[in-house]
């Protein structure tokens, strides 16, 4: 049961909680860099929940795109599941792919 005024969609309830949990692109960049050492990471996103990231890492060599994306998602912990990050568009490349 929801506390008074905390129903989804009502002002003052969960909406305020969602606003308090918004992330900034720099935090996401740091999380990815910590989780994939040596990665070059660029993250964009102005609304705090929708982001785009370019991640370049030697660790991606020989891995399919899905495996690369899973590596990046793993660096973010449960932030995708909790809604802190609503959407993350990923481009994951090896250094050779970036240059070529």
Q: In one word, what is the shape?
A: globular
| CATH superfamily (homologous) name | BolA-like
Q: How would you spell out the order of helices and strands? A: HHEEHHEH
- Tell me how many strands there are: 3
Note the main sheet: 3 strands, mixed
Mind sketching the topology for me?
Blueprint: H1 14-20, H2 25-35, E1 40-44, E2 50-56, H3 65-75, H4 79-82, E3 87-93, H5 95-99
Helix pairs in contact: 2-3
Describe this structure in words.
By secondary structure, the chain is an alpha+beta fold. The chain has one domain (23-99): BolA-like (GMP Synthetase, Chain A, domain 3). 38% of the residues lie in helices and 19% in strands. The chain has 5 helices and 3 strands. It has a 3-stranded mixed sheet. A hairpin with a 5-residue loop joins strand 1 and strand 2 (50-56). Helix 2 (25-35) packs across helix 3 (65-75). The longest helix has 11 residues, at 25-35. Residues 1-20 have low confidence and may be disordered.
